[in-house]
Amino acid sequence: MISNNRTVASPPKGDAEAAFRDVANAHKPFRTDRWLLWGITLLVAANFLWIVAHNENFGWPTVAQWFTEETILRGLYVTLGLTVVAMTIGVAIGLLLAIARMSNDRLASSLAGLYIWFFRGTPLLVQLIFWYNLSTLFPEISLAIPFGPTLASWNTNDLITPMTAAIAGLALNEAAYMAEIIRGGLLSVDKGQIETTEAFGMTRARALWRIIIPQAMRSIVPPTGNQLISMIKATSLVSVIAMADLLYSVQAVYNRTFEVIPMLMVAVIWYLFITSILNVGQGFIERYYGRGEIGSTAAKKQEKVAVAEISAMAPEGSK
Amino acid sequence: MTAALSMDTIEAAEPLVQARNVHKAFGEVEVLKGIDLDVSPGEVVVVLGPSGSGKSTFLRCINHLEAIDRGSIVVAGEQIGYSLHNGRLNKLPSRAIAVQRRQIGMVFQQFNLYPHMTALQNIVEAPIGVHKQNRKEATELAMELLARVGLTHKADAYPRQLSGGQQQRVAIARALAIKPKLMLFDEPTSALDPELVGEVLATMRDLADRGLTMIVVTHEIGFAREAADRVVFMDGGIIVEQGRPDDVLGNPQHPRTRAFLSRFI
Fold it and tell me: Which residues form the ABC transmembrane type-1 domain (chain A) (predicted)?
């Protein structure tokens, strides 16, 4: 009614003007300064690439020659394998630590606190060397009742190979960081959600698995992607304990051929390639856990209509 | 239906909820100072009172979301959070408390739907995961409940794609899906825009008519007048006055009840 009156009241000439004033037809101004900045940036970048490509010290033919060489690829597999195994174990232990840290049980939370304090508080390199040299501290590892009889016993040197030392060092260190990331994620979930699972008589384990963790993932995934990328690079530390990862393989080559820079470029390009792929993967995971958010693509596909209805509705006060 | 029952028939039945001398303090602040309340099966009790009167806290004590300091609350023969064994009262571990809570449905002020699940998934979560129903039956019941709250077409919508009123109706369907003996409503319309309150109250009135036992903490005097069998007025951590809605709302005896009600007229 009111809008009708208004149309009638406004003169026909106003309609024509309104058409001109329709913001849908507005033109974007031509911004000379922006174009100039783009031009300069591209020019500098192109020039830089030109210089790098034509600098013989980079030894691009050598890079190309070694890039897919077998020893390098074997090192790459070790790096990837170590990353996957150490990260998986790290996340699993980290999850347990986070839950223990947040529990009402004083014993569990202080043990988890102690673990995190120790493994975050000492350098990863030192931890790796410690694991590798464990046999000098404990020549034998045995399963026994405290102050009681021994049940089984192993020679430490048989257990701790460079591989197990690397996995133990990387995974246990990672667990401490992941514990804090996961704890932060769990704390970010609305208290009302936890209360609801209690009111519905869910067990704590089920509430965590079905309700709390999926919501916590939204804030856990981005820093975990960060951790994964730094883990890939942290695996290069295992070269100090004679583990033949990507960096170690590259070093093995340039120690013979003295082509230090070209060989390091091989490693750099591989590291950049892997992290780029991981970035893409992280994007997909974030989108998955962002479902249910207005504006998320997964939700958009399913519920275009519903969103349209809501925007047509009266303003939503509560959310 | 139940509204038509006389007070005498209600009092004759074995009470579903028995609260005795319930005390609760948060630190120094005493929130509940000795609440006694019986709720009979099928009865709809509306708890009114100013903010800070302890009414929400009392509701949350009924399913042990808050532990009480003194007194006892028994729901359907079970004292939630405790077990009485040979005259000795033992505190129960959380797993056992979870089992006791499974016959009580609850609807929250902030809806608390699981945001990462669709409306339908929200409703079937507890029946499948907690009550171990098979998926097909649970889904059928869920669709039936969605139809009852008028949201069949929103089964696959995520909570954030729903209006507040729709979210609260899904939350009610979710609580009903566990076939509760008792439903607790904690200010179910307080977080809603005024024009969305009506649809939620209509849904609740429908449940009251179907004979569900309900304890409703609310500020909606109109709902109390139309749907309640009994109105309980709380202030300062005690029950000041209770009785039939017509009596308590129409002819309040206590000055505090009168002062509270005068703000709504």
Answer: 76-279
